[in-house]
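Exercise: predict the structure of this protein bound to fe (ii) ion.
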Amino acid sequence: MGFLGSSPSSSSSLPLCFLLALFLALSAAVVCNGGHTSSFIRKEQKSVDMPFDSDVFRPPSGHNAPQQVHITQGDHEGKAMIISWVTMDEPGSSEVVYWKENGSSRKKTAKGKYTTYKYYNYTSGYIHHCNIRKLEYNTKYYYEVGIGHNYEVGIGHNVRRFSFTTPPPVGPDVPYTFGMIGDLGQTFDSNATLTHYENNPRKPQTLLFIGDLSYADNYPNHDNTRWDSWARFVERSVAYQPWIWTPGNHELDFAPEIGENKPFKPFTHRYHVPFKASGSTSPLWYSIKRASAYIIVLSSYSAYGKYTPQYQWLEAELPKVNRTETPWLIVMVHSPWYNSYNYHYMEGETMRVMYESWLVEAKVDLVLSGHVHAYERSERISNVAYNIVNGKCGPVKNQDAPVYVTIGDGGNIEGLANNMTNPQPDYSAFREASFGHAILDIKNRTHAHYSWHRNQDGYATEADSMWFYNRVWNPVDDSTSSES
Ligand SMILES: [Fe+2]
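Solution:
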């Protein structure tokens, strides 16, 4: 009172200045304490699948030429690679020939196997899987598929050659860069996402794919030729760097109305993962180590209640993680546990109730999800105190808890999820309904730079970013809200 009335000459202007200052201070406080809903406005348009005759879907020329080539890690440590591809006309050879880029070592041959499946009125091509083992770390390899299978036009006529680089040895301060894409599909937007990912100047070395691959199940009778076209579309990336697979709901392909009662049939025939290496009994949940990261993949669409195989596996798995060896602990699960969009709301809730306390106890750094076709990043929060009768049923800030990132914004045919709950909950640090991808650039055991890139921007623009401080080696507050 005295301050405002102390100078008669300024009695008219001071309150205005003061109110303005107060308004600005309060505005800043709102930004600091709450989450941020991006004001970025994008053109509203429907996501449309690329036509089947698009060049991105074009099969390689030549009789029985290998197509849909894709690779993923083939063991627990990163010294093996599963090479997969499809031949359409005849089985051909399941062998892979491979050799190091440098050095005088001779070419080696690994033997694989092929499988086929039927789905309603569709019969698959010959799906080959070959796990090449005992690779050297940090080494570029070339590999060839389609070896000597075409006797009519001459051996090797349709051989296709690709390359990949193995990761550095597993260790605590190994820099490594992961990309992240979810819910990709095969629309023009999907193509934009993949193109932006490929051109990201941080040069991601391995992609964490968070489920929902082809969206073939949106077609009549789950037209599995759209599984084929999707695999041809992404070959330009996944033939050269491993994509780590997580099952999503669009991998279920459960359609009893057309006699398809076995969930995950196309997905599990086409995409093999090294689940046995981590003691898992199912390809739908497993773990790998890669460089300085330990990655746990969970299945939102498999049983996870007490006594189930997934429950037992995860309970035994988390204590095995040695953060001195792999400081960064990342969990991938398709359906988000924290999501403030009005889509798939609370779908991840039952799994959160089952497992969240384990993840907090294990000091997981990042939980990566998809499913909701938008982007969201949370504060470090947990909601593990509730015991039915105590009323403590809201999320609270918790520095032992992971950051939850939802990145189901790959660009599929179902379009963007742009309807958000309001007001934005405190635990939601940033959210925006745009298509894009993310990068986790691990520097050492304490720091990792994280960024999200929307498709409307240039390749290097970071629409959202934060420095992750490792929960074991540098467990200080890394909230972007508290920074400001
Ligand atoms: Fe989904």
